[in-house]
Specification:
The protein is mainly alpha-helical and about 130 residues long. The chain is built from 5 helices and 2 strands. It has a two-stranded antiparallel sheet with strand order 1-2. Helix 2 packs across helix 5 and helix 3 (about 85-95) packs across helix 5.
């Protein structure tokens, strides 16, 4: 197989670009397929989640009713005992009282795509 001189010139550029990709998650088990962290952040603002939660760099999100969400990806459990997995987080966001009848978190009527986007933001975007 013969490699052209042009291909050899492009190879270093491609290697540099691959190094510029967003940081890979430390734990691939927390990756959500088709989740959009940017849209998740918008949804968190639109639903007013910051009224109850302190959320990283969101200045308006300084609530103290629920737990702070910074470092969410490092938590072992959510909702008082549910393992912190993408599937559980999405299911919990869609219907919190189903998992914890005593929770103060209301059912916001989130659809599956919205819950995936918010979960993606919680795993990737809250710093």
């Amino acid at each position: 197989m013969r490699v052209s001189a042009a291909a050899l010139r492009i190879l270093p550029l491609l290697l540099m670009l691959s190094a510029c990709q967003p940081e890979e998650r430390a734990d691939p088990r927390l990756r959500i397929i088709d989740g959009d962290a940017g849209h998740g952040r918008e949804l968190i603002a639109a639903y007013g989640c910051g009224a109850c939660h302190e959320i990283g760099a969101m200045r308006s999100a300084r609530g103290r009713v629920g737990p702070p969400l910074t470092g969410f990806e490092t938590r072992r459990y959510i909702a008082g005992g549910l393992p912190n997995t993408p599937g559980n987080v999405v299911a919990f966001l869609r219907d919190p009282p189903r998992f914890n009848p005593d929770t103060a978190m209301p059912d916001m009527g989130l659809g599956e795509p919205e819950a995936r986007d918010i979960a993606t933001y919680l795993y990737e975007g809250v710093k």
